[in-house]
Automatic annotation (TrEMBL):
Similarity remark: Belongs to the GOSR1 family.
GO terms of biological process kind: endoplasmic reticulum to Golgi vesicle-mediated transport; protein transport
GO molecular function: SNAP receptor activity
Name the record gives this protein: Golgi SNAP receptor complex member 1
Amino acid sequence: MAYVFNVQSLGTEFYRLRSSLKAKQEHASLLEDFREFDRTRLDLEDGVGSPEQALLKEHASINRSTGQMDSVISQAQATLGALVFQRSTFGGINSKLSNVSSRLPSVNQILSSIKRKKSMDTIILALVASVCTFLIFIYWVTK
């Protein structure tokens, strides 16, 4: 039992440290991007030199923009990976709940009443949204 608790505490500590590391890396990346932006602004204030120099500056600017787009894409892919992981975690929780509900009939009744309440809430929310949309449409048409 102590082994399981120790593994769980180590796991939570790992996730906490990993998220802290990601936050610090993002902060450092943002600072580096700002420094590059500041250097570019200073270069533009110095004045325009030869046409070749202007083309080189434009090429460097395009390369920096491409690098920033790559970083945004990698962040989006990391977010997708985190969402997929959360989905699998919640899927595991759902299967465990259904397993418990099949073993204990009273839990099954409670879970079914929760599902009914959730579906009722969804229906009510949909009706409220549709009425609001209809009223906005009527207001828009009469205006």
